[in-house]
Write a structure and sequence with these properties.
Blueprint: H1 8-16, H2 31-34, E1 38-43, H3 55-64, H4 69-78, E2 81-87, H5 113-123, E3 127-133, H6 149-156, H7 165-182, E4 188-192, H8 196-200, H9 203-210, E5 215-219, E6 228-232, E7 254-260, H10 278-289, E8 293-299, H11 309-321, E9 333-334, E10 345-346, E11 352-358, E12 361-368, E13 375-378, E14 382-389, E15 398-401, E16 404-407, E17 418-427, E18 437-440, E19 461-462, E20 469-488, E21 497-499, E22 502-504, E23 511-517, E24 523-530, E25 538-554, E26 571-578, E27 598-601, E28 604-607, E29 615-618, E30 623-632, E31 636-642, E32 646-652, E33 658-662, E34 664-668, E35 673-681, E36 685-692, E37 702-707, E38 712-714, E39 719-729, E40 735-742, E41 749-751, E42 755-760, E43 765-774, E44 780-790, E45 793-805, E46 812-815, E47 827-830, E48 838-841, E49 851-858, E50 862-871, E51 874-882, E52 888-894, E53 901-909, E54 912-919, E55 927-933
Parallel strand pairs: 1-2, 1-8, 2-3, 3-4, 4-5, 5-6, 6-7, 7-8, 38-45
Antiparallel strand pairs: 9-11, 10-11, 11-12, 12-17, 13-16, 14-17, 15-16, 18-20, 19-26, 20-25, 20-26, 21-22, 23-24, 23-25, 27-30, 28-29, 30-35, 31-34, 31-36, 32-33, 32-35, 37-39, 39-43, 40-42, 40-44, 41-43, 44-45, 46-55, 47-48, 49-54, 50-53, 50-55, 51-52, 51-54
Helix pairs in contact: 4-5, 4-11
C-alpha cells in the first residue's frame, strides 16, 4: 500500500472540499456494499514469507501447504465481513496473478486460486473483489526483476517497457480485460490509485460497459466514476480508534477505511506472529459503522493461506463478541449525520462513542465508558420513549430534558462497546424547512445558501472561501427559537494532521456569533461562542429568542494556513431551527433546583427550558444553593453547568470558596462519602456533576504552532532568528495561568517577554513573537514551551526550533520542509536518514506540486553550484527554475526511496535574493530533502 506522488484528482478534490462532480452517488450495484459493515483485505503473493522468486515454486508450495479458499471465506464471516479483497497483483508482492493468465509479463499460476475463491465466496454469500495496482516502481525490489517486458512485447507485437508507467498501464489494462472475460461472478476491482494510460484509454468507462454490475473502488483518491473511495491506515486521532475523524469524504459517498489488524509489520506476512490490539481494532470497527464507513480490515495470510495465531484468535473473538450486537451494526446507518440521529463523539466524564440507527430506533455505542455511571448526550430533538441494554435486553432508567438524554445507573459495562437501544417517537419542535428562507453574505457558484433549508444533503452551501461570513435565516414571521442544529459538511478531518505528507485540517466552524432581528436591519446579539471541531450535528443554544430573522456569523474556522485546501473553506449541509426541546422526563442527579438542596437568601429555582430538568437556580449573587449529600470517593472533578456565562464561588465542606469561570470545571478536595457543596455567584446554576479526576498524565488537547519549522542553517558569527508561536485549545477543558515563550541557551539573548493569559477556552489562541540572538553560530535546540494548569495540575507542551551552523563550503542552505518555503500541493513526511528528519514528498505530476524557495540570498554575482539532496526509487527528474526563468531538467536515479543522495546543477545568480522553484509538472519527481549553494 502506498500513494503515488501528487495526483491531480486528489488536489482538485481537496481544493473544493466536495464530492467530485458527476460522481454516481447511488446505483443498484452499490446496494450490497451499502448494506455491509466490513470486508477482509488479503495481501498474499509470491513475496509472502518465505519469499519466492520462482512462480512455479511458489504455486507448488502454496498447494502443498494445504491452501483452501473456504478458510478465507470462513475467517471473513467471523469478522462480519461480507466481501474479500484479494491483493496478489501488488507491487511489493511480485506482481503475481493468482489465475492462469494467457498474457505474459509477470508471475501467473496454473491453479486458478482466484476462481476457487470466487466460487467459495458465492456459496456462502461473501463477494470477492480483485486488487489491481497502477505502479511498476518496485519491479526490481531487492534485485529480483518481477516484470518481463520482452515476453509482453513479443505478445503485443511492439516494444513495451513494463517498468514505465505507460508500459505497465498497457499491460495491466489487458489484465482487466482478461479478468472481466473469465470471472462473471467477481464483484469488482479495488484499484490502488490511477494510471495515466488507463485514464487516457478509458479503462473505467470500458469496465462500466463490459461489467455494469461490478463495483470500482479507489485507494486514497475520490475518482468520480468510482463507486467507493478507500482511506488507508489513518492514525493519530484522539481517541486513537476514532478512524472517521481523519476522513474527509462526505456522505452519501460510499467510503471505506482500510487498515491493518496486526499492530506492527507489513500489510503482508513477512514472518512472525504479530499482536492484534483488540481495543484499537474493535473501536475502529464500531466508530466506522457509526459514520456509515466500511471497515476493510487487512490480515496477513501466510504462504498456505492460514493466518498467524493471534489474528485467528481475534477473528474467533469477533465472531462471538459481535453476535449480541449484530443488529446494531448490520443494515444500519451512522447517526448524527444525513440519516438523522443523536449527536456522536465526546460525551460526559470522558465518555466517547457513536450512534447507529435503523428507522426510529437508535443504538448508542459507548466505546469509551465515562468515569461515572451515566451517559449524557445531545438528543437532536428526538423524544425518547425507552432505553434498554442491547446485550442483556434489560430496560435502563433514563432522563431527558434541555436537549440531553441521560442514561442512568449503568452497571454492566462491556470492555469494548456498551450498547443501548434507544426507542424514539421521532423529532419534536423543529420548524418546517419550507417556511424558512436562507441567504448568505457570500456563496460559491452553484452552492447558494438556499441549500441550507432544502432538506437535501445532496446540495449544500459553500462560503466561497470568505471569512468572516454570515448566514441569515428568515423564519417568515416573528417566532420563538431555542437552538440551531448545524450540519457541517463532513469534507475535512477534525484536527490538523498529515496524510502521506499532505497537510490537512478541519474546515469546521470555530468562533461564531448569533444575532436576532425583527426587521432584518436592527440586530441584537443573542449568543457568542465556539463550536468544537467534531463530526456530526452541532448545536447552538440561544435561549428563548423571539425574532423573525436569525443571523449566524462564522468568524473563523479551525483550519490553519498550513493546510491550504482546507484554510478558510466552509461548507454546511443544513441548518435546522428548533423552537423547543423534547418533552422533559425523569430527573438527572445533582440538579440545582432539586428540593433536596438548600436555598439561602434570594436563591430560588426559575424556569429554563434549555437547562437540565428545565430549571436553574437564580439569585446566587444574593444567595446560594447548598448541596448536602454529594457522594464521592475522594478528590474529584466538579463540573458546574450554568444557564449563561458568569463567575461562581464554590465552597466544599465549609472550606474557603474558590472562584470559577462558569460554565466550567475545577478539582475539589472531596472526601470519601457525603460532601457539602455551596455555590453562589453571578450565573444561574443548572446542575453540578461529579467525576473522578482524570489520570495525572492527562493533558487537554492543544495545537502548538512554532515558526520557523525545519532546521535553520546559519552562517558563522552572531545570528538572530525571529521565532513566532501560537497555542490553541482544541477541547472544552479550560486552561489556566497560561504562558508561552522560547527558552534560549546560556549566552543567547532573548528579545520579548513571555505572552500570558489568565485562561483559555475552547478555540481560543495565545500568540507571541520573539527574537533570539546567538553570540556565535552553533548547533542548538531552542524549545518553545507553553506552560499552564488544568484542574490545578501543572502541564506543558513544547516544540523545538533547531539551529545548526552551515558548512563552510556553502553560502546558502535550507531544508525543503522549512516553513519559509511554499510546498504547494506536495507534503512533508518523516525521513530518519534526511538532514532534518523530514523531507518533502509528492512533488510533481502537476504545476501545483512544486517546492518554491523564496529569499535564496547570495552576497555577490557569479556562478554557483546548486546542490539538491533527495531520495528516489528508480529514474526521475526535477525541473529547476530561478526567478521564473526557463526550467532546467535534473535527472537522478536511486533505489528504495529511503537513502539520501546528492546531485548538483550550475546556476548563475546576481547579488541579492532569488526564488527557486523545484518540481516536475508532467510526472512524479524525487522527494526533496534540502537545497544548498556552494
Amino acid at each position: 500500500m502506498r500513494v503515488r506522488a501528487c495526483l491531480a484528482a486528489v488536489i482538485v478534490l481537496l481544493a473544493t472540499l466536495v464530492t467530485p462532480a458527476h460522481a454516481e452517488l447511488y446505483h443498484p450495484r452499490q446496494d450490497w456494499l451499502r448494506a455491509s459493515t466490513a470486508g477482509l483485505f488479503l495481501h498474499w503473493g509470491m513475496f509472502t514469507a518465505p519469499r519466492h522468486t520462482d512462480c512455479a515454486a511458489w504455486e507448488h508450495d502454496v498447494t502443498a501447504g494445504g491452501w483452501t479458499p473456504g478458510y478465507w471465506i470462513d475467517e471473513a464471516t467471523k469478522l462480519g465481513a461480507s466481501y474479500v479483497v484479494l491483493t496478489t497483483f501488488h507491487s511489493r508482492l511480485g506482481y503475481a496473478r493468482p489465475w492462469p493468465s494467457k498474457i505474459p509479463g509477470s508471475c501467473s499460476t496454473q491453479r486458478d486460486f482466484l476462481g476457487e475463491l470466487i466460487a467459495a465466496g458465492k456459496a456462502k454469500g461473501v463477494r470477492v473483489m480483485l486488487y489491481m495496482t497502477d505502479d511498476p516502481q518496485w519491479h526490481n525490489e531487492t534485485g529480483h526483476e518481477s516484470l518481463d517486458s520482452a515476453a509482453y512485447s513479443a505478445y503485443k507485437g511492439h516494444p513495451v517497457d513494463l517498468t514505465t508507467r505507460p508500459g505497465f498501464g498497457e499491460f495491466s489494462y489487458d489484465l482487466f480485460d482478461e479478468v472481466m472475460d473469465r470471472y462473471a461472478d467477481l464483484a469488482g476491482f479495488w484499484i490502488d490509485n490511477d494510471n495515466e494510460y488507463w485514464e487516457q484509454h478509458g479503462l473505467y468507462e470500458h469496465i462500466r460497459e463490459e461489467r455494469p454490475s461490478w463495483l470500482l473502488s479507489n485507494n486514497n483518491e475520490d475518482t468520480p466514476i468510482m463507486d467507493t473511495v478507500s482511506n488507508e491506515q489513518k492514525t493519530g486521532m484522539t481517541p486513537s480508534y476514532d478512524y472517521p475523524q481523519a476522513i474527509y469524504t462526505p456522505m452519501p459517498r460510499l467510503t471505506e477505511a482500510d487498515y491493518k489488524l496486526p499492530t506492527n509489520g507489513d500489510w503482508w506476512y513477512s514472518g512472525g506472529d504479530q499482536a492484534v490490539d483488540f481495543r484499537l481494532s474493535t473501536g475502529r470497527y464500531i466508530t466506522n459503522a457509526g459514520s456509515s464507513i466500511k471497515s476493510l480490515m487487512a490480515e496477513t495470510a501466510m504462504l498456505n493461506g492460514k493466518f498467524p495465531p493471534q489474528q485467528e484468535a481475534f477473528n474467533n473473538f469477533m465472531a462471538t463478541w459481535t453476535q449480541p450486537i449484530r443488529k446494531t451494526l448490520e443494515g444500519t446507518e451512522g447517526g448524527g449525520y444525513m440519516y438523522g440521529g443523536m449527536q456522536p463523539g465526546f460525551w460526559n466524564d470522558g465518555a466517547h462513542g457513536v450512534i447507529t440507527m435503523k428507522g426510529r430506533t437508535q443504538y448508542v455505542h459507548v466505546v469509551t465508558r465515562p468515569s461515572t455511571n451515566l451517559v449524557r448526550l445531545r438528543d437532536n430533538g428526538y423524544r425518547v420513549t425507552g432505553v434498554s441494554d442491547v446485550r442483556s435486553g434489560k430496560p435502563i432508567r433514563f432522563a431527558q430534558s434541555g436537549g440531553y438524554l441521560s442514561i442512568l445507573d449503568i452497571k454492566d459495562w462491556d470492555t469494548y462497546d456498551t450498547v443501548f437501544q434507544v426507542d424514539t417517537a421521532g423529532q419534536q419542535y423543529f420548524y418546517d424547512k419550507s417556511t424558512i428562507k436562507a441567504t448568505a453574505s457570500a456563496s460559491a457558484p452553484g452552492h447558494p445558501a438556499a441549500n441550507l433549508a432544502d432538506g437535501s444533503y445532496l446540495n449544500y452551501w459553500d462560503a466561497g472561501g470568505q471569512q468572516p461570513v454570515s448566514v441569515t435565516l428568515d423564519l417568515g414571521r416573528k417566532r420563538s427559537t431555542a437552538y440551531l442544529a448545524v450540519h457541517e459538511r463532513e469534507s475535512s478531518p477534525t484536527a490538523a494532521r498529515e496524510s502521506f505528507g499532505r497537510a490537512e485540517d478541519s474546515a469546521r466552524i470555530k468562533d461564531y456569533r448569533v444575532d436576532a432581528s425583527d426587521d432584518g436591519k436592527n440586530w441584537r446579539t443573542v449568543r457568542t461562542g465556539a463550536l468544537p471541531s467534531a463530526r456530526g450535528v452541532q448545536f447552538v443554544d440561544v435561549g428563548e429568542v423571539h425574532a423573525r430573522y436569525l443571523k449566524l456569523e462564522v468568524l473563523n474556522t479551525w483550519s490553519g494556513p498550513q493546510a491550504k485546501p482546507f484554510f478558510h473553506q466552509l461548507a454546511l449541509d443544513e441548518i435546522d431551527v428548533a423552537y423547543g426541546y423534547p418533552d422533559p422526563r425523569g430527573e438527572v442527579p445533582l440538579e440545582a433546583e432539586s428540593p433536596r438542596n438548600g436555598f439561602e437568601g434570594k436563591a430560588s429555582p426559575v424556569w429554563c427550558e434549555a437547562c437540565s430538568g428545565t430549571a436553574a437556580v437564580a439569585g446566587l449573587d444574593r444567595g446560594a444553593v447548598v448541596y448536602r449529600n454529594v457522594q464521592a470517593t475522594g478528590p474529584s472533578r466538579l463540573q458546574l453547568d450554568t444557564a449563561g456565562p458568569g463567575t461562581l464561588s464554590v465552597s466544599v465542606n465549609g472550606a474557603a470558596p474558590v472562584t470559577v469561570n462558569a460554565p466550567g470545571a475545577i478539582a475539589v478536595p472531596f472526601t470519601a462519602g457525603a460532601n457539602t457543596v455551596k455555590v453562589s455567584g453571578t450565573a444561574a446554576l443548572d446542575r453540578i456533576a461529579v467525576a473522578p479526576l482524570p489520570p495525572e498524565s492527562y493533558t487537554p488537547k492543544t495545537t502548538l504552532t512554532v515558526e520557523p519549522a525545519g532546521v535553520q542553517w546559519v552562517s558563522p558569527g552572531q545570528q538572530s532568528i525571529k521565532v513566532t508561536a501560537s497555542l490553541r485549545l482544541d477541547v472544552d477543558d479550560p486552561l489556566d495561568q497560561v504562558s508561552l515563550a522560547p527558552a534560549v541557551p546560556a549566552g543567547w539573548m532573548l528579545q520579548g517577554a513571555p505572552v500570558t493569559a489568565a485562561n483559555l477556552r475552547l478555540g481560543q489562541v495565545l500568540s507571541g513573537s520573539w527574537t533570539v540572538t546567538a553570540p556565535a553560530a552553533q548547533d542548538v535546540t531552542i524549545p518553545v514551551t507553553a506552560n499552564f494548569t488544568t484542574l490545578g495540575r501543572a502541564k506543558s507542551v513544547s516544540k523545538p526550533v533547531q539551529v545548526k551552523q552551515r558548512p563552510a563550503d556553502r553560502v546558502f542552505m535550507r531544508e525543503a520542509e522549512d516553513s519559509a518555503n511554499d510546498i504547494g500541493d506536495a507534503g512533508v513526511t518523516s525521513c530518519s536518514a534526511c538532514s532534518g528528519g523530514q523531507k518533502v514528498r509528492n512533488i510533481g505530476g502537476s504545476a501545483g506540486a512544486a517546492v518554491t524557495f523564496p529569499g535564496v540570498t547570495v552576497g555577490a554575482a557569479g556562478q554557483y553550484t546548486l546542490y539538491l539532496d533527495f531520495t528516489v526509487n528508480g529514474d526521475r527528474s526535477y525541473f529547476v527554475s530561478v526567478d521564473g526563468g526557463a526550467p532546467v531538467e535534473v535527472k537522478v536515479s536511486g533505489a528504495g526511496n529511503s537513502t539520501p543522495y546528492t546531485t548538483s546543477v550550475p546556476v548563475t545568480l546576481t547579488a541579492g535574493a532569488h526564488t527557486l522553484r523545484i518540481g516536475n509538472d508532467r510526472s512524479g519527481a524525487p522527494d526533496l530533502d534540502r537545497v544548498s549553494l556552494g
